[in-house]
Design brief:
The structure is a single chain. The chain is an alpha/beta fold. 39% of the residues lie in helices and 22% in strands. The protein has two domains: 121 residues, Periplasmic binding protein-like II (D-Maltodextrin-Binding Protein, domain 2), CATH 3.40.190; 88 residues, Periplasmic binding protein-like II (D-Maltodextrin-Binding Protein, domain 2, 3-Layer(aba) Sandwich), CATH 3.40.190.10. It contains nine helices and 15 strands. A five-stranded mixed β-sheet has the order 5-1-6-15-7. Strands 11-10-12-9-13 form a five-stranded mixed β-sheet, with helices on both faces. One of its GO terms (molecular function) is ligand-gated monoatomic ion channel activity. Belongs to the bacterial solute-binding protein 3 family. One of its GO terms (cellular component) is outer membrane-bounded periplasmic space.
């Protein structure tokens, strides 16, 4: 066999193995390895040492549709995308906004929920009534989130206080260590509703879409998840989850 033909055969063989590897993830019964940062209620959080929240129940329902169990791993938010690019996980779901920057390194399902960034301040704070009032103020944000990038780009005079966990961000507002927090709408409304002592400015900073991040080399899994979500919408399970986790103003 000539050198050229040998190289061609080896290349085709390698491509074939790659395709088989990708297709194997579509087998029924094979676990879906999912990572999440379970500190973002009502999207995901820990309750009695178990994963809970809208995202968790949605992905579990998707797994049932696909006849594939879900294996959850709890990681910091900043480690979600690296878990996919290093192939330690198949999907990441944690209130992740679909952004062009993230889409360069991971795939996303079609949007499954609409959210956006909002400003949360301590009740009784009369100095911050719109996002323009944040200039020159101390604002807590969770590291690695869209809040950080948006404030850097749009309000560079804001003094960012970056923390690892969502709860830390809210606590700093409640005890008066910072003037405000900028975070996703679902988590802000959940905290205001359950903890009290804070208020959310009426005008959101952005409108964003949540997506499930999927490894770039698993297009079949991405498509399967999209199909499963459509089935859940058709049979009413999706709306039941929305009604359960986002009552009244939290939607």
């Amino acid at each position: 066999m000539s050198l050229t033909r040998r190289v061609l055969c080896n290349t085709l063989f390698a491509v074939g193995l790659s395709c088989l590897s990708t297709l194997s993830f579509a087998k029924a019964g094979e676990p879906i390895k999912a990572v999440t940062d379970a500190t973002f209620p009502p999207m995901e959080f820990m309750e009695n040492n178990k994963f809970s929240g809208f995202d968790i129940e949605l992905v579990e329902a998707i797994g049932k549709q696909l006849q594939r169990p879900v294996q959850w791993t709890n990681v910091d938010f900043k480690g979600l995308i690296p878990s996919l690019t290093s192939q330690r996980a198949d999907i990441a779901v944690s209130g992740i906004y679909i952004t062009p920057e993230r889409a360069k390194v991971v795939d996303f399902t079609r949007p499954y929920l609409t959210g956006g960034l909002v400003v949360l301040v301590k009740e009784g704070n009369t100095t911050i009534n719109s996002h323009e009032d944040l200039n020159g103020k101390n604002v807590s944000v969770q590291v690695g989130t869209k809040s950080v990038a948006w404030l850097h780009s749009n309000m560079p005079q804001v003094r960012l206080v970056e923390v690892e966990k969502n709860q830390q961000m809210f606590n700093l507002v409640s005890i008066g260590r910072v003037d405000a927090a900028v975070t996703g709408k679902p988590a802000a409304f959940q905290y205001a509703r359950t903890k009290g002592g804070v208020r959310i400015l009426p005008d959101p900073l952005t409108s964003e879409e949540y997506g499930i991040a999927v490894r770039k080399n698993l297009p079949q899994l991405r498509d399967d998840i999209d199909g499963a979500i459509e089935q859940l919408k058709a049979n009413g399970e999706y709306q039941a989850l929305v009604d359960k986790w986002f009552p009244s103003s939290g939607k």
